[in-house]
Design goal:
There is one protein chain. Helix content is 67%, strand content 2%. It has 359 residues and is mostly helical. The radius of gyration is 20 Å and the shape is globular. The N and C termini lie close together (9 Å).
């Protein structure tokens, strides 16, 4: 491993800015609820998750990323994530899905742990096979782990996260040198499966049709998207002002998580939305820079995988809020309400900072 250098201060500042902005937006969305019941004060829980996240980020910064390359660490993370994905299927249903493992007053979202486990596993396999990703000795364990993880996530059900995991894994392999014949074969197999999964279940089919024409069912499946577009359109260029959102007053469901970008655009306008996208653009630049300067294949592909996961997830969330993509339920990293999402994103940010120290 190369000599340890100073960490990337611009990346560190970007991460802090995104977390701080997320806390402000969670407070803005939760403020009307806190006037009616203390239990709905989301800011307290999010601030606790952020505090724990800063500790975890600091640990990830100071423990050399090569620790994640040890076989027992790689496989323990993956097996632990799979065990959580199985355990969550036996948890009580919340919002017609089983995504959270209840731990007293707290909860853990198993699919968020799966993100953190799968990327080091793929990077380790690429490193172990010296970058020859077209060998079956590499493709078989990666595809097995990816397929099992994606199926368990789909069973929750959480289609958005499953699609995200498959997309990031495929991109990591492609950037590592996967030949076109494997990409073509994967497309031939996966496209019909994805179409079947999207159309075979009533609520998925209705969600897809509402994306194509949300006004056809304005009080049903198209309601969230239409309310999101109203929020974004109401903001104009400069927004209604911090805390002045109307749509967060119980008009837009999940405004603190899945559709927090809509509230950002409503309160801070187009300029506020562009500022958020600029933050993730900086994250993309500095994360890829850290990966390309990493002294080994593991560090390179680990940084690339983490960076793409965070940025693509952000683009999926914004795409849903602006009706460019079907509703997926994927949170906006660092900004959406959700302790598990924030904690895992900050750990990933700490790993990126660690890799940047060895460029």
């Amino acid at each position: 491993m190369a000599k340890k250098l100073a960490f990337d201060k611009l990346l560190f500042t970007t991460l802090l800015a995104l977390v701080a902005f997320g806390l402000v937006m969670v407070y803005s969305v939760s403020a009307p609820r806190s006037r009616t019941t203390v239990n709905d004060m989301l800011l307290i829980r999010q601030a606790m998750a952020a505090g724990l996240g800063f500790v975890a980020l600091g640990v990830a910064m100071h423990v050399p990323y090569g620790f994640l390359r040890k076989p027992w660490v790689v496989y323990s993370l993956l097996l632990g994530a799979l065990a959580l994905l199985v355990a969550v299927l036996f948890q009580p249903t919340v919002n017609q899905s089983r995504r959270w493992i209840l731990l007293g007053p707290f909860s853990l979202q198993a699919s968020e742990v799966a993100k953190l486990a799968l990327i080091p596993f793929i990077a380790y396999q690429i490193h172990r096979k010296e970058g020859d990703v077209n060998r079956l000795e590499l493709l078989v364990p990666v595809l097995f782990a990816l397929g099992l993880t994606a199926m368990l996530v789909m069973a929750e059900p959480d289609q958005g996260t499953a699609v995200l995991l498959v997309a990031i894994a495929a991109t990591m392999l492609f950037l590592a040198g996967l030949k076109l014949r494997w990409v073509t074969l994967a497309a031939v197999v996966l496209v019909p499966i994805a179409a079947f999964l999207a159309l075979s279940v009533d609520y998925r089919r209705a969600r897809l049709l509402s994306f194509l024409d949300p006004e056809a069912d304005p009080l049903g499946h198209g309601y969230q998207v239409l309310q999101s577009l109203i929020a974004i359109g109401s903001g104009g260029l400069f927004g209604l002002g911090p805390g002045q959102s109307v749509q967060k007053l119980y008009y837009l469901p999940q405004s603190e998580s899945d559709f927090v970008f809509s509230i950002v655009a409503e309160e801070l306008g187009l300029l506020g939305g562009l500022a958020v996208l600029a933050g993730f653009s900086l994250l993309l630049w500095r994360g890829l820079r850290a990966g390309l300067r990493a002294p080994d294949l593991f560090g390179r592909h680990l940084a690339i995988g983490i960076t793409l996961l965070l940025v693509v997830q952000a683009l999926l969330n914004v795409g849903v809020a602006t009706s460019l993509l079907p509703t997926t339920g994927v949170p906006l990293p660092f900004i959406s309400y959700g302790g598990s999402s924030l904690l895992m994103a900050m750990i990933m940010g700490g790993i990126l900072l660690n890799i940047s120290e060895h460029g």
